[in-house]
Amino acid sequence: MLLASLSGVTALYAGPITVPAGLTPGEQYRLIFVTDDSYTATSSDIADYNFDVNTEADSVAALAALSTTWLDIGSTATVNAIDNIGIDAGVPIYDLNGDLIASDAGTGSGGLFSGGELMDGLGYDETGTLIPGSVSVWTGTYINGTPDDHNPLGTAGTVTAGSTGTTSGFWIAHHEQDPSTENRLYAISETLTVPTPEPGSVALISLAGAALMLFRRYSRPNAVPVPATARTSASIAAPQSET
Q1: Rounded to 5 degrees, what angle do the CA atoms 144, 26, 33 make?
Q2: Global pTM value
């Protein structure tokens, strides 16, 4: 029972997945998450929201080690979300649980701003922890990545917010709220590349494997077992000690 419990704890707190399974060295991808902290939507400067999501990402060692810039998926009256984050055509987007979210950040089929369904619901924060239920996320954005005409970030009235955990367009445009309300933000990385192992590292791994095989081979006992009949005959033929 203890082992099972420890195994569960390890899985629960494994941390964010920064290189999704199935990708090979040299392949490109992007990562997306929902901030754990909440913010108001009163600023009309997209740089403020970009700063917020970078601060969240840099608080996690695994994400800071990627040395990438994180961008807010949001629109002000003068900046489109799709322009703020860049399309990066053909570069797939994954959440921090390793799930494929969209084929890229474009408006084409399977894209983040296609208006269709995402490949998986958004709901993991920067630590790789699933946010329970559904929470509001500031976007100020239509499903095609352009500013909501009446409700962009920083407007004095109400601001458009998305909702986590859904694969429909509701993830980015679900309802409007007072900008002084505190909600989370969506963060997406710039394009990342799966690292290629250095030649020295590959050589060391191969050497370690060869050494292990040799150890197993020569650590086996070499003695040839004596047949039971021979042991019996030997014991009969052995001289008896005198008393």
Answers
A1: 40
A2: 0.78
